[in-house]
Amino acid sequence: MVIDREPVEMAMFPLESVLLPGEDLPLRIFEPRYTALVRDCLDRPEPRFGVVLISRGREVGGADARCDVAAVARIDEYVDAGAGRYVLGCRMGERIQVVEWLPDDPYPRARVRAWPDEPGPPVTAAQFRDIEDRVLTLFERIAAVRDVELPERDVLLNYPDEATDDIGKLLYALATRVPMGPADKYAVLSAASPADRLVALLEAVDSVAAMIEFQLSE
């Protein structure tokens, strides 16, 4: 599921949420334009489309404004429910940049190019362990409020095998476990390098922790 650095045309699925590389994406398709998108994707050897955050507007009906950083979704399984309805099981892959939006005919389309991690300062093992500890501290605070017991660290984090040797992918995987809002998640997705992603994730964790403490103080 590799996109070239040269722009290529791709079907796009705008959502009111952000999906990071490595996440699973279940979808229920019923709107006619996205039924057409799915049918076209399934006719190709590699059924995939881009998932992009809506910056203004709604998912249903069109007339939305869209961000310019996205990720590729691969359709791993599907059920044709009839009457133009599909149930999809997708897996998010590489990050992409939108070069140009094309007319929504018959569904959203764009010219996109791959956006792999850019060079930057290295993220050390100590730095990654620190952000892990902060995330786990956040989980412990939430668990204490809900009076539940957390599983062991390795079970709770449970990184995918493909991420274990890639710090950029590990940061994505860790970010998917944090209950952050779309703006913070988009900042993680848009971070140019792993070092930038670490900073964005730290800010997101601090934001979520502050929100939890504020809610508890009311």
Summary keywords:
2 domains, Archaeosine Trna-guanine Transglycosylase, Chain: A, domain 4, 6 helices, 5-stranded mixed beta barrel, 6 strands
Task: Tell me what you see in this structure.
Pfam families: LON_substr_bdg. One of its GO terms (biological process) is proteolysis. This is ATP-dependent protease. This protein is an alpha+beta fold and 218 residues long. It folds into 2 domains: 107 residues, LON domain-like (Archaeosine Trna-guanine Transglycosylase, Chain: A, domain 4, Roll); 93 residues, no CATH class. Strands 1-3-4-5-6 form a 5-stranded mixed β-barrel. Helix 2 packs parallel to helix 6, helix 4 runs parallel beside helix 6 and helix 5 runs antiparallel to helix 6. It starts with 7 loop residues before the first strand and ends with a helix.
Low-confidence stretches: none
Number of DSSP-assigned strands: 6
* Mean pLDDT level: 91
In the CATH scheme, the class of the largest domain would be: Mainly Beta
Give, in order, the helices and strands. Answer: EEHEEEEHHHHH
CATH architecture of the largest domain: Roll
Helical content class = 25-40%
Taking all Cα atoms into account, the compactness measure Rg is: 18 Å
Helical region count? 6
> What is the overall shape?
globular
